Amino acid sequence: MITFYPGPSKVYPQVGQYLQEAFESGLISANHRSGEFMQMLENTISDLKFKLNVPADYEVYFVSSATECWEIIAQSLMIDSSLHVFTGAFGEKWMEYTHRISHRTSEASFDYNADLILDKSAIFSKNEIICVTHNETSNGTKVPDAFLPELRQKFENLIAVDATSSMAGVVLPWEAADLWYASVQKCFGLPAGMGVMIISPNAVERALQVGEHKHYNSLLFMRENFLKFQTPYTPNTLGIYLLGKVMQQVPPIAEVDSLTRQRAAGWYAFLAEHHYELLVKNDPVRSDTVIAVRDTKERIAELKHFAKAEGITLGNGYGKEKEVSFRIANFPAISQDEIEILQNFLAKMSSR
Ligand SMILES: *Cc1c(COP(=O)(O)O)cnc(C)c1O
Question: The CATH number of the domain where 61 resides is what?
């Protein structure tokens, strides 16, 4: 089976060998307070910062998932409220999870074909956190490339970004936001079960100002541990090890980014040429990493069925467009050969 599911998604083929190495090294039996573990954690963080070009003064912590980050932000960084900018199901879920904890959220949702525009009237106070979903995995939209840098210029608010399905796939404007997070089962090409959180000195300052220490995953508690290359609870040692290995293996993010964008352009041209309807009509908000195709419910079911018979897993639709779309992951671990197999299949199907 080859899979184009946008998470969990195809893992890098080298992961098989890394798993074996992790086992043989004895590291996955080692105590997480041991020097061996701490060294491995330190190396993984430094390789990740190097390959993804993360600013030196941003800190990196590992958590269990992107979902956990929703809670950490609501618990540890909130003063007044949060403003949620989104176009689909994941951004909406972030707002809902936050609301259950903070009871103070406001919504700036957009149709997925709309241009995102945020003016000063949307902002309630300077303490409000602006929460942006960088790549909306559910419907294949992204925020336009200039959006976050413009927000940064216009507002002094703390900005938090869900980059779960774009981090490690495209270049991110790190300095344009204070808190970024992702999970490893998407563009990182790794097995599910870990989240990556990247935070700016401003976000650290906010956490200190809030001073929240009530939870096992309170940001300040996480930080105290990670600054010593330790973790507040027994971590996903294997996940951290594999992430380190993959970060050593992959090219610098600028190279990955150009391949991702080139492949995305290829996909959009291919789909248009073969008369597939894109879910997203507005070009600047079309995702580079998750491509969504729209058709009737019957036709979508048929395409998924025939794909499966040929050993290809397409991503199901998600959220409102669940029945009338399928998704194609354009993640770096997917090979050119696999893309060609799917394109041959779709070309064949377009004429029947
Ligand atoms: C997958 C995804 C999540 C949830 O990730 P988990 O690892 O399941 O917590 C959140 N946001 C976006 C945009 C996603 O694509």
Answer: 3.40.640.10
Residue nearest to atom 3 of ligand 1 (CA): 66
- Per-residue pLDDT tens for 110-159? 998 888 888 877 777 899 999 999 999 999 999 999 999 999 999 999 99
With a 6 Å cutoff on the Cβ, whether 137 touches ligand 1 is yes
The answer, yes or no, to whether any atom of ligand 1 lies below 6 A from the CB of 90, is yes
Domain limits for position 46: 15-249
* Distance (Å, whole) CA 73 – CA 18: 32
d(CA 101, ligand 1 centre) in Å: 19
Do the beta carbons of residue 294 and residue 321 sit within 8 Å?
yes
The domain boundary residue, chosen from 189, 217, 249? 249
CATH of the domain at 332: 3.90.1150.10
Ligand 1 atom index nearest CA of 192 = 7
